[in-house]
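Regression check, adenosine-5'-diphosphate case 360:
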Amino acid sequence: MIKVRNLSKHFGELVVLKDISTDISKGEVISVIGPSGTGKSTFLRCLNLLEVPTGGSIFIDDVPLLDKHTDVPKLRQKMGMVFQSFNLYSHLTVLENLTIGPVKLLGMKKVEADEKAHELLKIVGLAEKAYSFPDELSGGQKQRVAIARCMAMEPEILLFDEPTSALDPTMVSEVLAVIRRLSREGMTMIIVTHEMEFARNTSSRVFYMDEGLIYEEGTPQQIFDNPQKEKTKAFINRIRSLNCHITSSDYDLYGLQGEMEVFCEKHMLTRRVTGYVLHIAEELLVLQKDLSDVSLSLSYSEKEGDVELKCDSAGLPFNPLKEDALEDDIGLKLIRGRCRSVDYFYEGGRNILLLRIKGE
Ligand code: ADP
Ligand code: MG
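Current build output:
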């Protein structure tokens, strides 16, 4: 359906897209992930000619998009784009937002457009908001209207550029649910997103973008569980773990615990498990002999639902959780009770403690 060959895009001296080639079939759902500034938005914008590519070619259903004989407006109508900021017409009702395009651009009859719009509003769960104005809606509702408005133009391909990143966390899931529904109905979609769980569960393929390329691509399992290339690995690891470096005994314990709490919340750990994690991290730090160079890292294992806490500190060999030291210390016994495993080793002048905290 979409064929991209050697696509490049430069902004003056800046080479944003170097050489992108890919084929996307009908019904595929592609998630595009990667650090910011790697050209994810530019890639989407080139696909529907919001940006004119510097080189290469794009074919939509075998029609060359960049050929000067191509009817670009017609081809572009096959693609709808949903932006981070919803771009609704604030002086029009929700219904009018949905009908203006079909009536003015597709020449649809008003009654027909109205009927279609009501149907679409049902699909995105906003049937009762047809006569509201955008300002009367929450961010999540606005974005669902924006999606319905896109659908009203009967596109064959939907492009989403970070559709949830301008939303309050509480509203992310309602928008993702709508996108998921469209994917089940067989819509072809390309979604730039930072919602990794969503990317994993919903897409057929994941593109990791970096260095002006689709640096690595694969199934969600390949990209998230077994990335092959260095930068992909680094990116995936970074989003899956929290790293803190402590350099003196004056470290900010509450700040650290706050960050850990946010991390636990993001992975939907229970309050109880979050409490254990914070408590165990604090105990571990109290037990350190030397706080001049300690790294704590927290990572979540999706498979088992456990949390791994790694404490890596410089100094002479010293294991604060050694069995025989444990006998009469209740705090340490508690730690062991809450962990599936506790491993210690000494490597390259550093004490490494690996605790696997039970996820439930
Ligand atoms: P991403 O979406 O991955 O964060 P973008 O595609 O938005 O990345 O941007 C990639 C790079 O291109 C950035 O360095 C950005 O500043 C630059 N860029 C994007 N659009 C323009 C533009 N219209 N003019 C000049 N530079 C741009
Ligand atoms: Mg972007």
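Comparison notes: The pocket of adenosine-5'-diphosphate (ligand 1) is lined by residues 11, 14, 16, 36-42 (CB under 6 Å). The first strand starts at residue 2 and ends at 11. No diff flagged against the previous build.
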